[in-house]
Amino acid sequence: MLMRNALGVLAVAGTLAFAGSAAAQDKIKIGVSYPTPTHAWAAGMNWHAEQAEKRLEELYPDVDLILVNSPDPGAQASALEDLVSVHQIDALVVLPFESEPLTDPVMNVKESGAWITVVDRGLSQPGIEDLYVAGNNPELGRVSAKYMKSRLKEGDNIVILRGIPTVIDNERFDAFMEEIEGSGINVLDHKHANWNRDDGFEVMQDFLSRFPDIDAVWAQDDDIAVGVVAALKQAGRDGDGMFVVGGAGMKEIIKGIMDGDELIPVDVLYPPAMIATAMDATVAAFKSNGPVAGRYILGATLITRENAESYYFPDSPF
Amino acid sequence: MTTASGDSAAKAARRSSIDFKTLGPALALLLLCIIGFLLNPSFVSEGNLTNLLTRSAFIGIIAVGATFVITAGGIDLSVGSMAAAIAGVMIIVMNSAVETFGAGVPTVLLGCGVAIILGIGAGWINGALTTKGKIEAFIVTLGTMGIYRSLVTYFADGGTLSLDFNIRGTYRPVYYETFLGLPFPVWVFIAVAICGWLLLNRTAFGRYCTAIGSNEAVAKYSAINVDRVKTLTYIIQGLCVSFATIIYVPRLGSASASTGVLWELEAIAAVIIGGTVLKGGYGRVGGTILGALILTTIGNILNFTDMISNYLNGTMQGLIIIVAVLLQRSDWKLGKSGKA
Asked: What is the pTM assigned to this prediction?
């Protein structure tokens, strides 16, 4: 009796599994895996991923995008396993939490035969991904430095608020310093403000107490820039011609640029929307008649009052 | 056993030089200020000192609450997340109250009221779960730490909650304006510190906290309502977190998942630097305040110099904290007799 029941269950399950895999074969399944949005930039990325999912599934009814976010590298590795075993994906778009721990799990997905797109942070071994989509960290530093040079003259002073000590931060900072070298602009000091508003506020307060003459601030990131502006206003030094250059493309900052804010006149793009670019390109790998594989490096565009409108997404959380 | 070593250590300190033990944190702070001045004379400028005091207010106020929890033998790891969650709810409530009450003082008062109720509620939950639920305080508050942090992430949709621009105009002075030359947050800090000192040193409640922290079983046999007193320490902690949040929100008018990260550890560090015993049974509000000032001053000084590599900031902070605590251990020299 028990035996027969068990067999029955097995049979039903088998039929279901078969039906499932048959249906799956009709659709192109693309898994999209990224870190859980716990800060503003990642929340923006999540929003853009959801928008792209809606848009692409409407455009191509036979494409199924599966978005998964994970709170840590271990959970992301498990999520990748599930995408292969449960969903049997044909392609993977992955923004790795960290390069090292995610390299093997992504390689396993590759071995299942799936197309691999890696976003933003590279893997620690070359040749796994078919397509690499990323912002340009050194370019972000260079573009910021070029703007500084265009506004400042020899002997002018700037201070720098850096992010969290990481490879990304070093790439931005080194490129900035290389570009600014020889221009005669003095970098008074640089400190880590960890890409958040509170630290931006406190580090800038201390810079203002310490240096009576600052002509510009490179805040490297829009969240830091918000804190910097608050500190400038508190000290009453927001009116003496100082300007702040952030980065990333936060909607409030872009709005300010559109409205002609003099304190933050420009922004340098490091868009959370790059995940959408990666999803578009991955779908194109199945739908386009042109080749897709390779590297897709987004420009670190200088956002000014003239072009700000095309980078403004009022509904995004970032 | 805890009582024995705690008491004898205290006695040894009293015998040898009570002043050195009390003055330890003060000496450390003075030393830091001298270093700061030598690095750059503008360290002692009025602006910088005001910034320092105002910044210390957040950790300081929270640490006064933590002094009670730790003195009574407990621990609260949830304060940083609690501050972020309260800040988030305050902002949501005030933003939605604009239509009904306008962007004036009533809306701000409503926000503050909500903050105080939430702080008391959150403290009561921590306290009740620890005493009635009989779960280790470390576990309870580790749990609520995760809960509050994810709540603020959820409220903010992963991004940042921003206060309505019009309310910001009304609320902003609470952080930025001064009264008799001192910013409002510093006044709140002073008020909380005085109340905390009186409560711990001049009331029966304070003595109960110390007694429970020394030996809970003995306290129970001495007819102290242990559960109620312990729960009250968590409620005081929650209330302190609300006060800190009320003066924190007008600073940048925003809250996100990165608000208040590691505040719990800074508050505990301030308490310990100030001479309170982590195991409970001996607490000092005055020391806690010096501890909070020391922590803020370290950060300030590191921003005033470019001699130390940016990457070693954490090392310098750690070293100074350890040296500050060493400075007040007058008993480790006469050691053996005190250790018994």
From this structure: 0.84
